[in-house]
Write a structure and sequence with these properties.
heterodimer; A: 229 residues; mainly alpha; 11 helices; 0% strand; B: 200 residues
């Protein structure tokens, strides 16, 4: 039997010209034995290509499986990272100064010195400020009490606050609250006093007051923004 | 995890040209490029499963087949870079998903032979010749054919597998360290004859 393997190989390697190709195809139709040889060639290529593809598919399958495994471990890593993140944030929030600390800091830092108000720049008012600024709060309270202006009432309250005479301070700030002023710090200072006294429902009441200061943009709201309230 | 991240970076930063070059180079480079191509677009699996309402496992099989088809097309220069690799692969994957669903829904008795694979090999022939050859092929069960090739020696298996993958004799010379192209061709023909002898 004639060996046509090289001829068949040339056809499938596209090495034949157009005429040769046509002759090749015609022979398939006319010569059964030749067609059998072509079929055997194709089967051989098919079988080995299939083996190669199956091996490749196995390799692809392994890639997908390893990706899934990595995906799962990545999920664990992400979960762990989330827990750490939440812990860090919680720590940050927990360690963030509470309301009492914020109010205490405000009192000691911002209310340690009073500035003079040009509108109420009377001698006695100045004397009161001097007494307050040198820590003579009782004396300052007595002086401010004698001047019936909003600033003097504020300073009387603040002097009482420094003296830890909370009830008296609250009285002054409530008096101030009732006044129709363009900038009224009554509610804010009353809230500070309640926070510092911290008895029974003081904190709860202070929070309500601070909420009011914040929403109505009363004197002190900018400070509350700094506190993150 | 770090290795994986670096690997992912490598996959997504790889461009079409480096994949094409790797596949055309053959050997280890080809294998690396094939896996890169497979990994780069494997999100098609999820898209395909959703779009065609098939199982993820089924979409994975179709995706693997689509990748192998694209690799073959690259190897025989059927992929002409007119479209991006992504577009080309997407089209093939889409078509193969449609074929998969058609096969699944029409419970017609089909040949055990992989028709896509067989059609690819028969492609240089005209339809009439293709039919004649296909009918002859069907006379032998695919399982018998696959059993037959197992009986051939390892050396022949290695050589015929590289040839079936689309490597030319010239490429096989380098891949298997043969003395010359002629030696490869003669060895390949001998192996094929041996296989034919096992059938007869």
């Amino acid at each position: 039997m004639e060996d046509n393997s090289t001829y068949i190989d040339s056809f499938f390697n596209k090495e034949l010209n157009q005429n040769e190709k046509e002759t090749f195809e015609a022979r398939i139709k006319a010569d059964g034995l030749f067609a059998e040889e072509v079929a055997e060639y194709v089967k051989t290529k098919y079988a080995f290509k299939k083996v190669s593809n199956d091996l490749k598919k196995e390799e692809f399958d392994q890639i997908l499986k390893s990706k899934k495994r990595i995906g799962v471990s990545l999920k664990y890593w992400l979960a762990a990272a989330s827990i750490i993140l939440v812990s860090v944030f919680s720590w940050w929030f927990v360690s963030k100064p509470n309301l009492e600390t914020l109010a205490g800091n405000y009192n000691s830092e911002k209310l340690s010195q009073l500035s003079s108000n040009m509108a109420a720049n009377t001698d006695s008012f100045q004397k009161g400020i001097q007494s307050y600024n040198t820590g003579k709060y009782e004396e300052a309270a007595e002086i401010f009490k004698g001047i019936n202006t909003p600033d003097a009432i504020t300073n009387t309250g603040l002097s009482y606050l420094k003296m830890k005479a909370y009830e008296k301070a609250i009285d002054q700030f409530e008096k101030l609250e009732k006044m129709n002023l363009l900038a009224n710090p009554g509610s804010f200072y009353k809230a500070l006093t309640l926070i510092e006294r911290n008895k029974n429902d003081d904190l709860q009441e202070a929070k309500i007051l601070l909420e009011k200061v914040k929403t109505e943009k009363l004197e002190g709201w900018q400070e509350l923004e700094k506190w993150g309230i | 995890l770090i290795t994986r991240i670096l690997n992912l970076f490598n996959i997504y930063s790889s461009n079409d040209n480096s994949i094409l070059k790797g596949i055309r180079l053959g050997g280890a480079e080809k294998r690396k490029a094939e896996n890169l191509l497979f990994e780069k677009y494997n999100y098609f699996i999820n898209h395909g499963a959703k779009k065609f309402n098939i199982l993820l496992e089924e979409a994975s099989i179709v995706y693997s087949d689509a990748i192998l088809t694209v690799i073959d097309h690259i190897k025989v220069d059927k992929f002409e870079s007119k479209a991006s690799l992504k577009t080309y692969l997407n089209q093939i994957f889409y078509n193969q998903c449609v074929s998969f669903i058609r096969k699944k829904t029409t419970k017609k008795a089909t040949s055990t032979y992989d028709t896509v694979l067989l059609d690819n090999i028969l492609e240089p022939l005209h339809d009439e010749s293709q039919n004649i050859i296909s009918q002859i092929i069907q006379k032998e069960e695919e399982s018998d054919l696959m059993e037959r090739i197992l009986k051939i020696g390892e050396k022949c298996k290695e050589l015929l597998m590289l040839w079936a993958e689309g490597n030319s004799d010239k490429e096989i010379v380098n891949l298997l360290a043969y003395a010359s192209v002629d030696v490869v061709k003669v060895s390949r023909m001998r192996c094929m004859a041996k296989l034919k002898g096992l059938y007869n």
